[in-house]
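Checklist before submission:
- one chain only
- standard amino acids only
- sequence pasted in full

Submission:
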Amino acid sequence: MRGHQLRDIRKLFQAHVAGMRTRGVELLSYQTPCCGGVMQTPAAREGEVRSICVTCIYCGSLFHRATTTTTVNTNEGIDHE
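Returned file contents:
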């Protein structure tokens, strides 16, 4: 991804997070495994685990994220080349 694309994605993501915060959604913060940037995601419902592939809004790398009601676990190393 190019710098301007990441900048646009970052702005969209930040607006999305701000909207969730305004609506009172419980957010969990975590560090990305690729570059250490801080991102936020909604907490999962009780008893649920959300497992997805995520694009880092700071460096464009892909990583795996698993979210519960209280924790976010990430794994680096998804090759997107």
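Reviewer check: Residues 53 and 64 are 5 Å apart (CA to CA).
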